[in-house]
Amino acid sequence: METNLFIAYMGVAIMLGLSGIGSTYGVTIAGNAAVGALKKNDGAFGNFLVLTALPGTQGLYGFAGYFMFQTIFSLLTPSITAIQAYGILGAGIALGFVALFSAIRQGQVCANGIAAIGQGHNVFSNTLILAVFPELYAIVALAATFLIGSALAA
Predict the structure, then answer these.
(1) Using CA atoms, how far apart are residues 96 and 90, in angstroms rounded to an integer?
(2) Of 27, 50, 42, which Cα lies nearest the Cα of 125?
(3) What is the CATH topology of the domain spanning 2-153?
(4) Contact yes or no for 110/33 (Cβ under 8 A)
(5) Predicted TM-score (pTM) of this structure
(6) How far apart, in whole angstroms, are the C-alpha atoms of residue 142 and residue 95?
């Protein structure tokens, strides 16, 4: 059914779009802090670079979700059922929103660490550890997407 395929692709679009938007915001939040901190401590650019790039991973989770539905489970075909289509839509909404907020909040944690490093504090490792916590929820959402795909493919 064309309608079912359209619904499924809407889920994929939401998943990719929201996770990408979240990564964009998260990376720019940290990047803005890095530019400001470079004025005070230009020797820590490597640390700033790592912390700035970290929120970009949530966009990759959105792509991984699409890859799972397309390649691993082969669900995005014209023969998709309504249940499968709505399952993909639900997974897309869930992963999209979790990745969106995870990336934004992770960017804020990284920005605070970058500001502290810029002021001369040795908090790179601590910031990296704390920034992983929002990432955990995006990973859990990706795992849930995998489990949904497994159930729909059965």
Answers:
(1) 10
(2) 50
(3) Four Helix Bundle (Hemerythrin (Met), subunit A) (1.20.120)
(4) yes
(5) 0.93
(6) 6
